[in-house]
Specification:
Strand content: 25-35%
Helix content: 10-25%
Number of strands: 21
Strand order of the largest sheet: 1-2-3-6-4
Radius of gyration: 21 Å
Order of helices and strands: EEEHEEEEEHEEEEHEHHEEHEEHEEEHE
Largest sheet: 5 strands, mixed
Oligomer: single chain
Bound molecules: flavin-adenine dinucleotide, uridine-diphosphate-2(N-acetylglucosaminyl) butyric acid
CATH topology of the largest domain: Uridine Diphospho-n-acetylenolpyruvylglucosamine Reductase, domain 3
CATH architecture of the largest domain: 2-Layer Sandwich
Shape: globular
CATH class of the largest domain: Alpha Beta
Length: 347
Amino acid sequence: MGGANRDGFTLTENASMRGRNTLRIDVRAARLAEIHDAAAIPELLNHPSLRGNPLLLLGEGSNVLFVDDFAGTVVTMKTRGVEILEDDDDVSRIRVAAGEHWDDFVRWTLAHGYAGLENLILIPGSVGAAPMQNIGAYGVEVGEFIESVEAFDLHARRFATFARADCEFGYRDSIFKRNPDHWLITAITLRLPRNWTPRIEYSGVQEELRRMGVEHPAPIHVANAVADLRTRKLPDPAVIGNAGSFFKNPLVPTPQADALRAGHPQLPSWPAGDGLSKLSAAWLIEACGFKGSREGDAGISNRHALVLVNHGRATGNQLWALAQRVREGVRARFGILLEPEPRIIGA
Ligand code: FAD
Ligand code: EPU
């Protein structure tokens, strides 16, 4: 392992990725570039050791599955900084650097009296990755609040700014997710309106608030309710390696959802617009008997059927093979093809 310091970035040869992905897969990258100043990106890309090598953009590794070593350069944004661009009675506009930790930023907004992001508390990962899959939880998606995304275009080799409409946000989807390693996201600007109303329609949130004895919730109450629900439902990556939901909830034409529900009335489904319904992937997986199952150190969480876990020394290949079996099981029984949510690297 070797290190080399340059202004604005650091290069490390033959870097271990084990502590840089929450599934804790033990792989290596030929090179790791950590960027501390976005202005240094062009200089980094001209560095002789990077030329001709593939790049892989990585944040905190909470939504990736490494199936193999990476033969090129892993590039990570380590830039910090939160800047209030505008703050009046109507709206607050806040710019955040890509290297900030998302959950720290959400807590910062709450501590400083800005509302809107409370349902997105406790989502692991970096600010720079938040627009990638338009992170969402408990009835809210970050795209609703994104005014713009700043990025470096790695093809055209220039800085670019995306307005929200250019980001093409959808459920666990964006232009960035569909074009991995094209744009290195360097900062986002959020627009948080001052006219706040709580978003507590998602199943379980109101019950949790009642349990807490809260009648008229403030943003911090919603945050606490969501944090409690998440902590109860999802395994903690610090305790057992996982990447959150391993599959997206499938979107199917509503008549197909209705037909499935005729045979399986307990299958949860939600209207998703455009004549589509969203089905619960966790329910489908649990119904196939996979919940809590284990093949060596690769397993399905016994707390949540949508979460693949590494019990210790599972390889990326073992987890990927298990994911294929889950997919095949659900397809055979229900005719639904599940799509992985994390990025699979090297399969
Ligand atoms: P990484 O995993 O490092 O990367 C994810 C993708 O983003 C990769 O394609 C990578 O190439 C790309 N990327 C990363 N940084 C940049 C950048 N600066 N520029 C361009 N591309 C980049 N997600 C939800 O939406 N909702 C949830 O409720 C949720 N809960 C989770 C719970 C747990 C326990 C875990 C482990 C994960 C959960 N996730 C959830 C998934 C994950 O937290 C998010 O996808 C998060 O945004 C990933 O951030 P990261 O920095 O770890 O990205
Ligand atoms: N369910 C089961 N078995 C389980 C777990 C859940 O049948 O083991 C059923 C529940 O009964 C419930 C339904 O599945 O009716 C939905 O469960 P949950 O509320 O836990 O939500 P989810 O659909 O499994 C999604 C996101 C999560 C996000 C939560 C809360 C996806 C792929 N996952 O999970 O995001 O935190 O909603 O909004 O959309 C992630 O993306 O990594 C992630 C964790």
